[in-house]
Structure formats: C-alpha cells, structure tokens
Write a structure and sequence with these properties.
The chain has 185 residues and is of the alpha+beta class. It has 4 helices and 11 strands, in the order H-E-E-H-E-E-E-E-H-E-E-E-E-H-E.
Length: 185
C-alpha cells in the first residue's frame, strides 16, 4: 500500500510541475495601451493560449481596442500563414465601439470551438454540450490579431501566440473524453 501511495503522490507531483511549467510559459501580466501612440490600438488578454481543448474552452479571451470611431463596429480576426504558405484568416469576435472610441470583444465559446479548435459542437444523451474533434486545430505559431472597423478604414494589430497542448492539457482532454465531454472522430 505504501508503494502505491508513493506512486500516486509522484504522479500528482509530476502533473503539478507540468501544469506550472505551462502556466509560466504562456503567462504574462495583462498589457495596457501605449500612451505614447496616437491612433487605434489593440491588445489581447491573454497574449498566449495552448491548444488543449479544455484549456481553450476554459480560458477567457478578450480583445480591447481604442482609437476607433464612436458608434462604429469592429471585426477581429487572426491572420497568419500555415506551413506550405497557405494563409490563415480566423474570424474570432466583433464588438460595438463606445462613445469614447473603445471596445471590448470577448471570444465566444462557439468561436473557440469552430474557429480555433476547428471542431464541432454537439450534445450527449444528457443534453450537455460536447466538443466533437474531427480535424486538427489551427496551427501553432504567432498570429497577427487585427481589429478592422466596419464603417471606416481604421485598423489595429497585436500579436497572439498559439502553442501546442501541454502534458497537463492532454490529461484534461483525456478526462474530458472519459466523461463524454470531448469526442474524437
């Protein structure tokens, strides 16, 4: 029994260290707008995510912008290039610009599933939402997140990094598969 208990403690310690390593590899203090820049600006929080299904779903992603035309709307996409030169244009969010020329656009769960994970949503026998994985997610890399005004030619960019899933993410996704919340086809 002592041997089994030590083995379980070792597994949990390894999981904790792996999870902390991921947290610190993508973690950074939230950015703020540069007061020295004139014109439109865009920031994203967090600046980095990993492609674990549970991690993407559980991480709130929000874009904040300023310097846009009051009363306008913005559309936010991730732009990049896959290996082989194929362009990536991932629509993520939209928002209304307030009277101060600012906005906050939160990425909805459906956008996370269909656009970042390139998966589908469904429901199980308990009528709970599930994620159905049938193809790979967007490629790892550093993307340009771009906010584009709908009524004017105002644009603003920032970087958004996408990393592969960590070991901890793999374990969470495996557990999600066991519980029927994540289905791979």
């Amino acid at each position: 029994m002592i041997r089994k208990t030590n083995h379980i403690k070792t597994i949990f310690l390894a999981l904790a260290v792996t999870s902390l390593a991921f947290v610190f590899s993508c973690a950074s203090a939230p950015r703020d707008f540069d007061p020295n820049l004139k014109g439109a600006q865009l920031i994203v929080d967090p600046e980095c995510i990993s492609l674990g299904v549970a991690r993407v779903l559980g991480t709130p992603i929000s874009f904040k912008g300023k310097g846009f035309k009051p009363g306008d709307s913005v559309f936010i996409s991730l732009l990049g290039v896959e290996k082989g030169g194929k362009k990536v244009d991932v629509p993520l969010a939209d928002a209304a610009v307030d009277k101060d020329g600012s906005f906050v656009a939160k990425v909805a769960t459906l956008s996370k599933v269909t656009e970042i994970l390139r998966a589908d949503m469904g429901s199980n026998a308990k009528n709970e939402n599930i994620v159905i994985i049938s193809k790979p997610p967007i490629p790892e890399g550093t993307y340009t997140a771009r906010a584009v005004s709908m009524e004017s030619d105002i644009k603003a960019d920032t970087t958004f990094t996408v990393k592969g899933p960590s070991v901890g993410d793999g374990i969470k996704d495996w557990l999600g598969g066991l519980t029927g919340k994540i289905v791979k086809k």
